[in-house]
Amino acid sequence: MRVAYIINSVEGGGAASPVPAVTRVLRDLGAEVRVFALNRRDGRALPAMEAAGLSPLVRPGGRHDHVAALRWLAQETQAWGATHLWTSLTRATLLGLLLGTRRGLPVFCWQHAAYLKTGNRLLLRAMQSRARLWLADSDCVAALTTQRLGVERARLLTWPIFAADPSVPVARAWQPGETLRLGSLGRLHPVKGYDVLIAALALLRQRGFRTPVPYHIAIAGEGAQRAALQKQISAAGVDVVLSGFAERPQPFLAGLHLYLQPSRSEGFCIAAHEAMVAGLPVLACAVGEMPHTLVDDVTGRVVPPDDPAALADALQALLSRPERLHEMGVAARARVLQRCSPQRFAAAGAELFRRMRAASAADPATSPARCDPHV
Asked: Residue 239 in contact with residue 216, Cβ under 8 Å?
């Protein structure tokens, strides 16, 4: 079994970060896997993939030359001898479905995003039947995939894309006299809601709120919104630093006392899971998987998205009782280690691998329609 793992780009971020762990499971089960990236973008996901021995093949083209990208993909996957196509995100999925239909190869498609542009949603819905199996990275995305794309549950499997590593550095409890350190990991993009966070901090300042201890906020990420966010920070006069892309997120997280995820939209949200493994409570907006299985009053706080006032209220409550943050972080770590254990991650991958082998054998008794769709 030779699996061509087709991705949009090797840009650093949530969609590319699980690629090494996912491919490790498939390789351990006996598959050969190679990554085919349609575009380089910032290339920050490359080092982790190369360290995992993946040797990604990256196309030197752009983001909108779809015909050229399809030709490149057809040539390279045929030269490599792919027997299965595995796709992630919309562009890679649409091209993979076209190629799979042309070549008669089974296609397995990830869905990560809780938000789809209208045109992409319509195209995916029209072509969804060409996929042998759809994979959702969370329960919330699985429900959306059924609702928006019309994928029947028998052709949908949920594989949470995060395996918690219990050996990562763990944050220390805040001590009296210390500055409270808050932070977030994410692209500087409107979907991440950092403008909402800054607006909430400005509201706290307008209210005259004074924390019992000083606090500092760092946002680790890069993106097109940097200049606009910096202008907003300066105008609001709040203590927020745009610290740039974090090559090593674990030490960054271990240096915090509270993690912030003010997103307008999310799917699984790997960054919030990483923060919880690091023993941090999470203040998040109620989007994606977070309000369903991850964040509550035991492990942090959840507020409505795009609501600066609600976010300001939650920040005020948490900052007023800094001594409680560590206890919430301990609960957050325990929850993620239990729900996202390496054993569960590998078991979900094994179920997928079984279906991929069934696709190769073309055995009606093990076709997707006859298999349990859940792990």
From this structure: yes
What's the rounded Cα separation, in Å, for the pair 15 and 11? 9
DSSP notation for 258-313:
EEEE--S--SS-HHHHHHHHTT--EEEES-TTIIIII-STTTEEEE-TT-HHHHHH
Does pLDDT of 363 surpass 60?
A: no
- Taking residue 360's Cβ as centre, other Cβ atoms within 10 Å add up to 12
pLDDT in tens, 3-30: 999 999 998 766 677 899 899 999 999 9
Sign of the Cα torsion 226, 229, 231, 234 reads negative
Specify whether 207 is located in the same domain as 283: yes
Which residues, at least 6 apart from 25, have a Cβ–Cβ distance to it below 8 Å? 345, 346, 349, 350, 353
Structural domain span for residue 147: 2-162+341-370
Task: Give yes or no: residues 11 and 25 share one domain.
Answer: yes
pLDDT above 50 (res 368): no
Give kind and range of the element (H or E) at residue 229.
helix 226-236
How far apart are the C-alpha atoms of 217 and 161, rounded to whole Å? 28
Q: Rounded to an integer, what distance in angstroms lies between the CA atom of residue 375 and that of residue 356? A: 15
- CATH number of the CATH domain containing 292: 3.40.50.2000
Q: pLDDT digits over 226-285, tens only?
A: 999 999 999 999 999 999 999 889 999 999 999 999 999 988 899 999 999 999 999 999
The lowest-confidence range among 72-86, 113-127, 360-374 is 360-374
**Do the Cβ atoms of 293 and 184 come closer than 8 Å?**
no
Same domain? For 280 and 348 the reply is: no
